[in-house]
């Protein structure tokens, strides 16, 4: 079985390692020979926008998957299954279409307006009180988003972020917590939706609009966790994602769960599943896209916490790990990136422990001690 | 940091995966382009007995390690650290020298005779009642060994197994159980022995002289486990092994612990540490040979069991994993070998569970269900 991965970043790398363990032959199409997939033998370096590169590469694969919703899945030659499907990717790439699809299926999400004009954006501010303006395409980790409380804020956001078809303006949710639920789902067969497994709810904390830490158990009331899991599974089914997808949610005061956004691929909040779950998100992604039975997503440890290792400067990398490795119970995962940049995701640390507090303390201590 | 691994089998493969996760650049010298290290980019295919191959390969590495005590560590150019050290490997390769070294350090082991002649072997049988005759070099997994209860048995063993310097004849130990203890140890610094960590005792069960299953916790009385750990650490120190080493022991009636033999490398009984320990044997091997702080060897799950996936026929491999993957809580690890042979180690399954019994049941069910 040959699995093709479009993308040479850390998600492709960790997917490839999981696939190799199952005896799957992995081929990667990546823009560069260095970087996270460099330790792998079958990396084709080339421009995936070039059909003469993408076509022959894909045709040597039994199944192609992507590490980013922006990979050109729609240009893979017909006859090679692409998972998640092109329709799911297209719906998810555009935040307006993503919201519309979820609304069609009655899924809970923040009130929002697809503002085609500056006037509609200003009207949304008046209606909602405070809003988050989002670029329809290409926004992530705080890029392409702006929280607006005044008309001047909205005017500036319109100038910065609007595209030909406008801007997504969402009601600001005064959430109590952010959480994420990862789902793995097999392909639809004979019109029946694919079998799926749902990971435990992960609680997440962001700093500077970037994921700082994520941990499980999430510690919400059982009814809230059940609702988050229900919403996540229904969201993945509504979008017909195959493979793993993570649904990021707001938990509002009173316990309501609202979908923030969907990533149709392995996700940072679920990196802790490598060390903490019976079957990691990466292995279940491989199993799902190959239409193999899914593994148990449950935790095999009492608690786990993942903390990102972010770049803090510009330059070449020379890892100094001694202090990080000296923290008991912490697993250091570096991504093999040769160049560091401020805020670049260079790796992560997962700690497992008897309690979330202990896991978080260890993970933060070890992540802080990594020198790059 | 560039780590060279002499050997392209499953131990090299799993060591390489652990090293990559720590951002270490791995180079492998292997006899073949296919096989377990094939998914890795930096594999040099060549004859390691050829100095013109081994020399330049080793000189591109910061540290060289081996996946087998038979790798030509002694031919690596001076100036490149080889770990474990050449002296340790030389002492361990020859079962007579291995026993002699342990005896010098007062370590408990079966009574034995270095029989230089057929008559000495027969005298040992008379003295011990039942014996195990072992070829000095190259015996493993039941090859090169013979349990002898009669003179005719010893005569046959002498004919089959003796070398120029004779044969090792050991008293047969009517053991209650077999166990293994893995130790990771850093290099000696300024004449002081390297820091070491000792893994939990693993209980093992062999079938047809081959490892069938291994599990932890081992379930011996605490005093027996403490003695096994003490003996393992003292053995590794006596032999001055750097890296991981596994000490296989007999637990005799009454709880005495006797050293059976020593493997100066990652070991099959400790494969469960990938899924069950805070730090796997492979990661601690990498850390030890690079002289980095060692990780916590403790279990992060209540119980775990590993069962080997052995070949059952001759031919090409086409893995059928569906039934195995459907067993919850079982992690399947295949080694990417393209040819199957009867009894060849093709992979392993580790299950983690609340109890050893549940872990073993899951691991056996999943291993049995793998089709190759």
UniProtKB/TrEMBL annotation, chains A, B:
Organism: Rubrivirga litoralis
E.C. designation(s): 6.3.4.18
Pathway membership: Purine metabolism; IMP biosynthesis via de novo pathway; 5-amino-1-(5-phospho-D-ribosyl)imidazole-4-carboxylate from 5-amino-1-(5-phospho-D-ribosyl)imidazole (N5-CAIR route): step 1/2
The UniProt record lists the keyword Secreted: no
InterPro entries: ATP-grasp (IPR011761), ATP-grasp_carboxylate-amine (IPR003135), ATP_grasp_subdomain_1 (IPR013815), PreATP-grasp_dom_sf (IPR016185), PurK (IPR005875), PurK_C (IPR040686), PurT/PurK_preATP-grasp (IPR054350), Rudment_hybrid_motif (IPR011054)
Binding of ATP, residues: 95, 134, 170-173, 178, 206, 260-261
One MF term in the entry's GO annotations: 5-(carboxyamino)imidazole ribonucleotide synthase activity
UniProt catalytic activity: 5-amino-1-(5-phospho-beta-D-ribosyl)imidazole + hydrogencarbonate + ATP = 5-carboxyamino-1-(5-phospho-D-ribosyl)imidazole + ADP + phosphate + 2 H(+)
Family membership noted in the UniProt record: Belongs to the PurK/PurT family.
Enzyme class: ligase
Keyword Hydrolase part of the UniProt annotation: no
Domain (ATP-grasp) ranges: 99-290
UniProt entry keywords in alphabetical sequence: ATP-binding, Ligase, Nucleotide-binding, Purine biosynthesis
Reported function: Catalyzes the ATP-dependent conversion of 5-aminoimidazole ribonucleotide (AIR) and HCO(3)(-) to N5-carboxyaminoimidazole ribonucleotide (N5-CAIR).
Signal sequence, start to end: none
Protein name: N5-carboxyaminoimidazole ribonucleotide synthase
Subunit and interaction comment: Homodimer.
